[in-house]
Design a protein that fits this description.
This protein is mostly helical and 117 residues long. It has one domain. It is 85% helix and 0% strand. The protein contains six helices and no strands. It has helices spanning 2-23, 28-44, 48-55, 57-60, 63-81, 83-112. The longest helix has 30 residues, at 83-112. Keywords: Membrane, Transmembrane, Transmembrane helix. It comes from Clostridium porci. The chain crosses the membrane at residues 6-24, 31-48, 91-112. Pfam families: SpoVAC_SpoVAEB. This is SpoVA/SpoVAEb family sporulation membrane protein.
Length: 117
């Protein structure tokens, strides 16, 4: 049942983003930034954590989860190092995910031989 719930919640988030893309003139990059900021804001006000515990991977995998991860890192960094932690915390918390995306993207480019259009 957890897989079904994660699939449905993730699908609803993606469907809402698709509707936003089709009904507004926002570019995909701005929508991605909007999702990250929404995840950060929801984490800051304390709503994201209960939602992610209930929804599982359906809430943590999309960009909302990345925004929440950044927020948690910044919050922890400020608690440990003060103002400097505001700059280091988000990068430290999300470094593994960013590194994995870069490595897997590079490996995929080696396997599939991308071509310029």
């Amino acid at each position: 049942m957890d897989y079904v719930k994660a699939f449905l919640i993730g699908g609803i988030i993606c469907a809402l983003v698709q509707i936003l893309m089709e009904k507004t003139k926002l570019m995909p990059g701005r929508i991605m930034v909007l999702l990250v900021v929404c995840g950060s804001v929801l984490g800051a006000v304390g709503l994201y954590e209960p939602f992610s515990k209930w929804a599982g991977a359906g809430a943590t995998v999309p960009l909302l989860g990345f925004g929440n991860t950044l927020w948690k890192g910044v919050k922890e960094g400020i608690g440990q190092e003060g103002l400097l932690g505001a700059f280091k915390g988000g990068l430290t918390a999300s470094a593994a995910g960013i590194c994995a995306a870069l490595v897997f993207g590079y490996l995929a480019s080696l396997i599939f031989k991308p071509k310029m259009k």
